[in-house]
Amino acid sequence: MTQLPTPGATPAAPPPSEPLPTAAPPRPRWRETLGLLARNPTAAVSAVVLVLIVLMAVFDETLAPDGPNDQDPSLQLQPPSWDHPFGTDEFGRDILSRVVLGAATSLRVGFLSVAFALVVGTLIGLLAGFYGRWVDDTLMRLMDVLFAFPAVLLAIAIVAIRGAGPANAILAIGIVYVPIFARVTRASVLGVREEVYVRASRSVGASDWRLITRHVLPNAAPPIIVQTSISLAFAVLAEAALSFLGLGPRRPNPSWGLMLADGRGFIDQAWWYTVFPGLAIVVTVLCFNLLGDGLRDVLDPRQRTLMAGGGR
């Protein structure tokens, strides 16, 4: 039989309950992305090399053994040695110093031109994809006109009209890559604008500005990030091409493409004159492309799930 409690007696305290296990807070998305990117050896090595190249460009004057135009006529076209690991040119200038100092010029043109294309192209793609109809038709037909011209030919035409120089090279390369960013952004926005969360926000009265900045653009960003990395590779190549043709930075400022143009007349007797600037271009472009491939895998939802589960 159940024993009734005695009147006036203090009831026994219930046994202490064990604390419920708390779930660990989710990792921030950017940390998860970096973690997955680090698991890709090719992308991780490419990112490290690019960081080193950027640091070399930032601290170029500190790292360069000599000035860009320090001449020694007694050392004309000397092969690589301990004193001059990359050799010297026809004026006795140290090629290693000019390659290091030329990184700042080449990367500055590449980064600024892609930044211009990113801002303008993303804005055009957002407006075309979000509003559609006549806005989409008008803006994308303008992009089709730019697409009709070969990229390098269009850049040469713009620089030829405005004149040679780094500023005009940035503008020319940026205009060439605006249609690419516009198309990539538009394609992403067309898929995002019909999602349930976007329609729910619109149904409760969210403004177009809020929809674009809070919902559409953040969810359309992954393809744009990948395209940025790939475009940086082509921008460095385009800057080298314009400099090689004499339409980029002016002499005596060092630039990788300009060094290739200066060394082509001595390629039979001084192979190092063109090999080392060419290697700098190849390594930079290759690393940007490999990093872009890694970012594409990490930011793609299906690939991201496979990588998070340990598969590829």
TrEMBL record:
<keyword id="KW-0813">Transport</keyword>
<dbReference type="GO" id="GO:0005886">
    <property type="term" value="C:plasma membrane"/>
</dbReference>
<feature type="transmembrane region" description="Helical">
    <location>
        <begin position="224"/>
        <end position="250"/>
    </location>
</feature>
<feature type="compositionally biased region" description="Low complexity">
    <location>
        <begin position="1"/>
        <end position="11"/>
    </location>
</feature>
<feature type="transmembrane region" description="Helical">
    <location>
        <begin position="270"/>
        <end position="292"/>
    </location>
</feature>
<feature type="transmembrane region" description="Helical">
    <location>
        <begin position="142"/>
        <end position="161"/>
    </location>
</feature>
<feature type="domain" description="ABC transmembrane type-1">
    <location>
        <begin position="103"/>
        <end position="292"/>
    </location>
</feature>
<feature type="transmembrane region" description="Helical">
    <location>
        <begin position="109"/>
        <end position="130"/>
    </location>
</feature>
<keyword id="KW-1003">Cell membrane</keyword>
<feature type="transmembrane region" description="Helical">
    <location>
        <begin position="167"/>
        <end position="184"/>
    </location>
</feature>
<protein>
    <submittedName>
        <fullName>Peptide/nickel transport system permease protein</fullName>
    </submittedName>
</protein>
<feature type="transmembrane region" description="Helical">
    <location>
        <begin position="36"/>
        <end position="59"/>
    </location>
</feature>
<dbReference type="InterPro" id="IPR025966">
    <property type="entry name" value="OppC_N"/>
</dbReference>
<dbReference type="Pfam" id="PF12911">
    <property type="entry name" value="OppC_N"/>
</dbReference>
<dbReference type="InterPro" id="IPR050366">
    <property type="entry name" value="BP-dependent_transpt_permease"/>
</dbReference>
<comment type="similarity">
    <text>Belongs to the binding-protein-dependent transport system permease family.</text>
</comment>
<feature type="compositionally biased region" description="Pro residues">
    <location>
        <begin position="12"/>
        <end position="27"/>
    </location>
</feature>
<keyword id="KW-0472">Membrane</keyword>
<dbReference type="InterPro" id="IPR000515">
    <property type="entry name" value="MetI-like"/>
</dbReference>
<keyword id="KW-0812">Transmembrane</keyword>
<dbReference type="InterPro" id="IPR035906">
    <property type="entry name" value="MetI-like_sf"/>
</dbReference>
<keyword id="KW-1133">Transmembrane helix</keyword>
<dbReference type="Pfam" id="PF00528">
    <property type="entry name" value="BPD_transp_1"/>
</dbReference>
<dbReference type="GO" id="GO:0055085">
    <property type="term" value="P:transmembrane transport"/>
</dbReference>
<feature type="region of interest" description="Disordered">
    <location>
        <begin position="1"/>
        <end position="28"/>
    </location>
</feature>
